[in-house]
Design a protein that fits this description.
Length: 408
């Protein structure tokens, strides 16, 4: 009788990144059999277009080459067993249901419960599953580790159920619903859609009303440098939902379905509380900047891109008020190094987190040196730097997963 190669045996035709190997190994140890499915979903970095997504506007993120990996296998009951290697091996066990209970204290368990709950009503044959999760998307940095977890879970669960009818866009919507309905953050669709549809060497222009996406190639010879201020951010506890409410208030006052439909002229014609006026001005100007930045990227016009990224940062700082002093300092430092050959700004929801710099590759050592010399967090720590490439969107494969396909 032929012996089947195990997912980790030397005869396996795959060569997996260490995190993928770790989840496959831990799965095999915990369940005594190898996983049948391996899923991967990336985090994202946003080049420009902040808080525009829930205003039906435009964003320009890229999926990054940092992923959540999930080893999964079927169960013969309708239970879910989940193990999170990055949470000191914490686990969770719950019935697969469209209305699972919240886990006391929430955290990663609520992301797992809430995400699978969105999929259950759409499954032709709901199937219980075992899951082992780990990843290298930094957590709490604004690089969408939770969206990558959700997309990885959805891709894995679909494979286990032998059901792959849902598109990346539909899965992104389910992942967003999990955040909105279960976790309690009124986030938009950007993170989930970037994780679902990312493309190597490209950013993704997303129209958050139609959900149309267009890959925009990143200029040759440039790098994506992400610098974490080490100021931790928390979406649910932060003023994120408040910003969203203010935008909706402005849209109502302007008589438009969403701020996507508003112009600066319209804004000048209504009487709004100063704060709400400035929130709306950020969204209106930021939407234009995204479209202009797309043109600049396509034309390889780095000076123009740099000006737009700087203006975006200033608008987030002064109008939307979502930056903190440490992040302002980090952005200024990066803008200084990048000069006219690219741009830098805060990226993500705000209130801490990271700055993104798109810069010429040869400037990377100079940027690292400037960060080391010029930046310390409020606790006196240096910035954490992630040099990333734009990577592929979420994917799941069944064993034997064909060499290379899961990471491409
Ligand atoms: C978070 C949310 C996104 C988006 C950004 C800000 O990442 O999850 O939907 O609103 O903040 O651009």
């Amino acid at each position: 009788m032929a012996t089947l190669a195990s997912p980790l045996s030397s005869s396996s035709s795959t060569s997996l990144p260490p995190t993928a190997e770790a989840v496959v190994r831990a799965y095999t140890e915990r369940h005594g059999v190898a996983p049948t499915v391996l899923a991967r979903a990336p985090g994202r970095v946003n080049l420009i277009g902040e808080h525009t997504d829930y205003n039906d506007g435009f964003v320009l993120p890229a999926a990054i080459d940092r992923d959540t990996w999930i080893a999964a296998g079927p169960r013969d009951d309708l239970q879910v067993d989940a193990l999170a290697l990055d949470e000191s091996g914490a686990d969770d066990h719950f019935p697969l249901s469209a209305t699972p209970p919240h886990f006391p204290g929430g955290g990663w368990r609520d992301h797992v419960r809430g995400t699978l709950a969105q999929l259950v009503p759409l499954m032709a044959r709901p199937a219980g599953m075992n899951l082992v999760i780990s990843g290298d998307v930094p957590m709490g940095a604004g690089l969408s580790s939770s969206a990558s977890l959700a997309l990885g879970l959805l891709r894995a669960a679909q494979r286990i159920a032998g059901d792959s009818a849902l598109t990346g866009k539909q899965l992104a919507r389910l992942a967003q619903q999990a955040e909105n309905r279960f976790v309690g953050c009124q986030c938009g669709i950007m993170d989930q859609l970037a994780s679902a549809e990312g493309k190597p060497e490209h950013a993704l222009l997303i129209d958050c009303r139609s959900l149309d996406t267009r890959p925009v190639s990143l200029p040759e010879g440039t790098a994506l440098l992400i610098a974490h201020s080490r100021v931790k951010r928390g979406l649910v506890d932060s003023a994120y939902n408040e910003r969203r409410a203010q935008c909706e208030q402005a849209a109502r006052a302007l008589g438009v379905p969403a701020l996507r439909d508003a112009t600066l002229e319209m804004l000048a014609g209504v009487k709004l509380e100063d704060k709400v006026f400035r929130r709306a001005r950020h969204i209106i100007t930021e939407n234009s900047r995204v479209l202009e930045a797309t043109e600049a990227l396509q034309a390889g016009d780095l000076p123009r891109l740099g000006r737009l990224m700087k203006a975006s940062h200033e608008s987030m700082r002064d109008d939307f008020e979502i930056t903190v002093p440490a992040v302002d300092q980090l952005a200024a430092l990066l803008q200084d190094v990048v000069g006219h050959e690219g741009g830098a700004r805060m990226t993500g929801g705000g209130f801490g987190g990271c700055c993104i710099a798109l810069l010429k590759k040869e400037l990377v050592p100079k940027a690292l040196e400037a960060l080391e010399r010029g930046y310390r967090s409020p606790e006196g720590l240096p910035a954490l730097v992630y040099l990333c490439e734009a990577g592929p969107g979420a994917k799941a494969e069944s064993w034997p997963w064909p060499a290379g396909t899961i990471t491409a």
